[in-house]
Specification:
The chain is of the alpha+beta class and 120 residues long. It has one domain: Trna Endonuclease, Chain: A, domain 1, CATH 3.40.1350. 33% of the residues lie in helices and 35% in strands. It has 2 helices and 5 strands; from the N terminus they run αβββαββ. The chain has helices at residues 6-28, 77-93, and strands at residues 32-40, 43-51, 54-63, 101-109, 112-116. A 5-stranded mixed sheet has the order 1-2-3-4-5, sandwiched between helices. β4 and β5 (112-116) form a beta hairpin. The model has no long low-confidence stretch (mean pLDDT 92).
Length: 120
């Protein structure tokens, strides 16, 4: 078993806080939250929301500062590929069609929330 240090705990807490903030942001915009932290053997989807028949798979990245680059930059091509695979798994598991889907990134730096629709 790996020991957990304070930095790991702090990052996890920031991640949960960021997901809470993103969830509230989507709800304010009229989205219904379908799933949070949905897991499979492939990985985890942070947030799945829906509005007007469009299912949105949203990756949430929260950072205290942009000292190491913008939060959205953490969603690289490899991460995008994994999210697409997870989205297909989610759609199959929930018996949903593959039409009308979108991939967003919610980038949070400090307390600033940037919603990047159709990010990839």
């Amino acid at each position: 078993m790996r020991a957990t240090n304070n930095s790991d705990q702090s990052n996890r807490a920031r991640g949960r806080w960021g997901e809470d903030l993103a969830t509230a942001h989507y709800r304010r915009l009229g989205y219904a939250v379908l799933d949070r932290n949905w897991r499979s053997a492939t990985g985890e989807l942070d947030l799945v929301v829906e509005r007007d028949g469009i299912i949105v798979f949203s990756e949430v990245k929260a950072r205290r500062t942009d000292r190491f680059g913008p939060a959205a930059s953490a969603v690289d091509v490899t991460k995008q590929r994994r999210i697409r695979l997870l989205a297909l798994e989610w759609l199959d598991a929930h018996r949903r069609g593959r039409d009308g889907i979108r991939f967003d990134v919610v980038a949070i730096t400090g307390v600033r929330v940037d919603l990047i629709e159709s990010a990839f």
